[in-house]
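lol forgot to send this yesterday, sorry. struct tokens for the thing we talked abt
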């Protein structure tokens, strides 16, 4: 919570709190997920909380991302929302329903990109 509500829509607050998490890349991540060596050991990544336990080759598109800049965090979250949300079979129905309901509110907060 905290200042999130001042900067993010209710939908983005929910995604941030319940659906995605930040993590540090392990050596295994760098060898299995890195395309052309672009992921470094301990690099911060963002992943879906619901399918994080699934083997990498079985995850849907945009389940895991490694933004290379702070503005990339916002883009990664939006990509999770627009691409991965429809593909992930591990998101509980009640969570999916809440995401849909919040998306239908169509709240726009002009400072969202800056906050992420």
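and heres what i got for the seq, position by position
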């Amino acid at each position: 919570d905290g200042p999130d509500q001042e900067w993010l829509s209710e939908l983005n607050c929910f995604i941030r709190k319940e659906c995605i998490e930040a993590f540090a890349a392990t050596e295994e991540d760098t060898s299995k997920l890195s395309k052309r060596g672009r992921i470094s050991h301990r690099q911060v990544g963002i992943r879906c909380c619901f399918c994080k336990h699934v083997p990498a080759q079985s995850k849907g598109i945009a389940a895991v991302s490694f933004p290379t800049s702070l503005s990339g965090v916002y883009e990664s979250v939006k990509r999770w929302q627009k691409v991965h949300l429809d593909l992930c079979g591990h998101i509980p129905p009640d969570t999916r329903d809440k995401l849909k309901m919040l998306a239908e509110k169509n709240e726009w907060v002009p400072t969202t990109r800056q906050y992420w």
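The mean pLDDT is 85. anyway ping me if u want another try
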